[in-house]
Amino acid sequence: MLGSKRRSLVVALTGVLMAVPALAAFPDKPIKLVVPYPAGGLTDILARSIAHSITQSSGQPVVVDNRSGANGAIGAVAVARAAPDGYTVLVSNTDTHAINPSIYKKLAYDPVKDFEPVSLFATVPFALVVGKSNPASADFKTFVAAAKAKPRTLTFASWGVGSASHLGMELVSTAVGVTLHHVPFSGQAPGIQAVQAGHVDAMMLQPGGADAAARSGTAKVLAVTSDKRLPLLPDAPTLRELGVDVVTGNWFSIHVPKGTKPDVISRINQLVKEALADPKVQETFRAQSAMPESSTPDQLGSYVLSEQRRWGAIARAVSASVD
């Protein structure tokens, strides 16, 4: 009698288990990779390189979705409100997760409460560029001297108020004791074009864009913010070489909506690490002076908090804010 009941229970449980579909391995459908900046910029270039590699390794398409605006906030909000299933992923960076909380009086997302950290994937220094026709373009010393001679007269472009480009220049200006006039643009491209045309004096931008501007003969790279010279810009001295103790730049990472399951986060983290080991990805990164750098989710979470404190202090010092 007891054996009969056990057999019945086994049959019943087997029927239940057969009725429940097996959990599919992640990913089993296309992934949307939201880039909160326009196509063609550094964030987009790095993201598309990683997306292509993950598509090859996972067998599922990784589709890049450019949602630009508000210093990356528009794209960040889109991902924060997406389903927490791992199929909508944000390419986050210094702007979206470290600076925006300090400069926006009403930010529509919380970088910590609305997201799960996945992995860091790159760090990129800045390059200080001045228009070639500008008298202050001879070298960094000449640029600083000109700025000191006429405070608030020399201008600099950025890709937005409170962006890493803006605050990066403010950090250097403070270190050398000069005050420049900030002229924000809607992106890196219009900013550097204004510098090349002589409408704005200088800009702090990514090395890849700086190299392109220098090779065109319309701009000159005066310094880089890395800890050592860059292979892409071998003639540009580091700020430390010039006696300015500043090492800074932009960083890029992956975040997913809050509530995404740990096993999905772990899988995306693994896919990012595999992509960073891809020779083609490494080649793309080198061309932009981007250093591949992965992390655990916990390491990224701690890093974001420390970067919020660091960039927040800079933003408050220069009263950078957006209504």
UniProtKB/TrEMBL annotation:
Show the PANTHER family listed in the entry.
BLR1237 PROTEIN, TRICARBOXYLATE-BINDING PROTEIN
Q: What keyword terms does UniProt attach to this protein?
A: Receptor, Signal
SUPFAM superfamilies tied to this protein: Periplasmic binding protein-like II
**What superkingdom does the record give?**
Bacteria
Any matching Pfam family: TctC
- CDD domains recorded for this chain? PBP2_Bug_TTT (cd07012)
Specify the signal sequence span.
1-24
Q: Which InterPro entries match?
A: BUG, Bug_dom1
Entry protein name: Tripartite-type tricarboxylate transporter receptor subunit TctC
The family note in this entry says: Belongs to the UPF0065 (bug) family.
> What is the taxonomic lineage of the source species?
Bacteria, Pseudomonadati, Pseudomonadota, Betaproteobacteria, Burkholderiales
